[in-house]
Amino acid sequence: QVQLVESGGGLVQAGGSLRLSCAASGRTFSKSAMGWFRQVPGKEREFVASINWWGTNTYIAYADSVKGRFTISRDNAKNTVYLQLNTLKPEDTAVYYCASGGWGQEPHEYNYWGQGTQVTVSS
C-alpha cells in the first residue's frame, strides 16, 4: 500500500510560481514511477507530468500545455516528488493530484492517488 500526500497549492497571480510536493510512504519509492495530474470540476482528470527511471536513465514526460513552464523532479532520500509551476496561467487552475503504482499518461494506469491540492491562478 502507498500513501501520497500533496502540499504546496494556493492562490497566485498569473505569471507567478508555485512548487507542489508529494510525500510518499508505504513502498519502495525510489523504484516507483510518479505522475502529476490535474482536474477541474466537470472535466476529466488530465495528465501533467511523469517521472520514472530504469537503471541510470531518467524518463520524464510533460503535457504539451505545460511543457517549458512546469518541471517535475524527485528526491528519493525524502521520498518526495515535486512539481515546479512557473509562468502560471488562469487555465492552470485545478486540483493537482500525484499518483504512483503505474506508468503512463492516463489516470487508469495508476493505482495510488493523493488527496489533491488546489491551485488557483488569478488573472
Any overview of this molecule?
The chain has 123 residues and is mostly beta strands. Helices cover 0% and strands 53% of the residues. The strands form 2 sheets. Strands 2, 4, 5, 6, 9, 10 and 11 form a 7-stranded mixed sheet that branches. A 4-stranded antiparallel sheet has the order 1-3-8-7, with no helix packed on it.
The arrangement of helices and strands along the chain is EEEEEEEEEEE
Sheet bearing the most strands, described? 7 strands, mixed
Share of helix among residues? Answer: under 10%
Task: Count every beta strand, where a strand is a DSSP E run of 2 or more residues.
Answer: 11
Structural class: mainly beta
End-to-end Cα distance, whole Å, is 40 Å
Round the mean pLDDT to the nearest integer and report it: 93
Large-scale geometry:
globular
Rg to the nearest angstrom? 14 Å
Low-pLDDT segments, ≥5 res = none
Strand content: over 45%
Number of helices: 0
Name the features.
seven-stranded mixed beta sheet, 0% helix, 123 residues, mainly beta
Please render the helix and strand layout as text.
Elements: E1 3-7, E2 10-13, E3 18-25, E4 34-39, E5 46-54, E6 57-62, E7 70-75, E8 80-85, E9 94-100, E10 112-113, E11 117-122
Parallel strand pairs: 2-11
Antiparallel strand pairs: 1-3, 3-8, 4-5, 4-9, 5-6, 7-8, 9-10, 9-11
